[in-house]
Amino acid sequence: MKIAVLVSGGVDSSVALALLKEQGHDITAFYLKIWLEDELSYLGNCPWEDDLQFVRQVCAQFGVPLQVVSMQQAYWNKVVTYTIDQVKAGRTPNPDVLCNQYVKFGAFYECISDEYDYVATGHYAQVEHRSDISLLKMAPDPIKDQTYFLCQLSQQQLRRILFPIGHLQKIQVRALALQFDLANKDRKDSQGICFLGKFKFSDFLHAKLGEKTGDLIEFETGNVVGEHNGFWYYTIGQRQGIRLSGGPWYVVDKDPARNVVFISKHYQDAAEHKAGVIVHTMNWISGQPSDLTGLAMKFRHGADMHPVTVVQQDHAWVITLLQESKQGIAAGQFAVLYAGDVCLGGGVIDKAF
């Protein structure tokens, strides 16, 4: 097959490329250039130069042609502006979900010709391509599984996707990197938000939104116990960065209109024990299932799955937890639904109740 492989300079996408080449496919590597020189120059030099160096080494090793494609405008329009708007509204966005939906499997599709049978990446997820439909399925490693970040894909997008390492554990991918003797075989996994790389999200917010002093209020008493520099620097469940004695303190709520952050020493009582969430727009990857029983939900990336009931009411989806949450739920996160190991899709949480 003729396959376009998205490579990042990391081990996962490099092993995906090596496996497809070994299988005899006709592949071309694509590196998506997303660093916004003008908009993010205040953070420092482009963090992707090292990535591109590793990409070139891996492509040279396997004799694979490489194309560098500019995706800066698509990132700014679809991912960065969304992130800023959500944070200003007091919500907790997930830029990586939008990156997959609008850039890697959106704008990139428009850049390449139809001559490519598939687009492959190093995601930890699996696709079952049937004659009439494609299903997005979890990777066997529940901690590394990345289906959460793929919950907004359409069926049309999924039909064209391959995940060559999705059936593997991370330790197996590392072993293959050693076996192939890849230039980046010892490189650590990347962390952080897609368009920032090694730079801190708080630095990005500081440059875009600045500072605005507001009150830190104790949730239980309503007493002002300190000050903060802007509600946008805080998210539900946060413990670090509050800088008050007598803690530990946790962020349990925010009031953007008043620039107030509510904190508590009793996180479990104040922020946990949520019964469920409201989602107004749900993306069903392979169509809305006729049977909505026996489903589970993730509201953040990770292994935690929560059994739920799902009911459509008044143009919204009411997702009720069968057991109260032991983690804080924040508006703006994605609620992602699963039937067994199949990811059905998801939507943005409008509020928890």
Observed structural traits:
5-stranded parallel sheet; 3 domains; 353 residues; 8 helices; Rossmann fold; 6-stranded antiparallel barrel; 27% strand; Elongation Factor Tu (Ef-tu), domain 3; SH3 type barrels; alpha+beta
State the helical fraction.
10-25%
CATH superfamily of the largest domain: HUPs
The number of helical runs is 8
CATH topological fold name of the largest domain: Rossmann fold
Cα(first) to Cα(last) distance is 49 Å
CATH architecture of the largest domain: 3-Layer(aba) Sandwich
- Arithmetic mean pLDDT: 91
Molecular structure report:
About 25% of the residues lie in helices and about 25% in strands. The chain has about 350 residues and is of the alpha+beta class. The strands form three sheets. It has a six-stranded antiparallel beta barrel. Helix 3 runs antiparallel to helix 4. The model has no long low-confidence stretch (mean pLDDT about 90).
Give the structure's gist in a few sentences:
The protein is α+β, with helices and mostly antiparallel strands and 353 residues long. Helix content is 25%, strand content 27%. It has 8 helices and 18 strands.
Please specify the SSE layout and strand pairing.
Elements: E1 2-6, H1 11-22, E2 26-33, H2 49-62, E3 66-70, H3 72-88, H4 95-111, E4 118-120, E5 125-129, E6 134-138, H5 155-158, E7 161-162, H6 170-179, H7 201-209, E8 214-218, E9 224-228, E10 250-255, E11 260-264, H8 267-271, E12 276-279, E13 283-284, E14 295-298, E15 306-313, E16 316-321, E17 334-339, E18 342-352
Parallel strand pairs: 1-2, 1-4, 2-3, 4-7, 8-11
Antiparallel strand pairs: 5-6, 6-18, 8-9, 10-11, 12-16, 12-18, 13-18, 14-15, 14-17, 15-16, 17-18
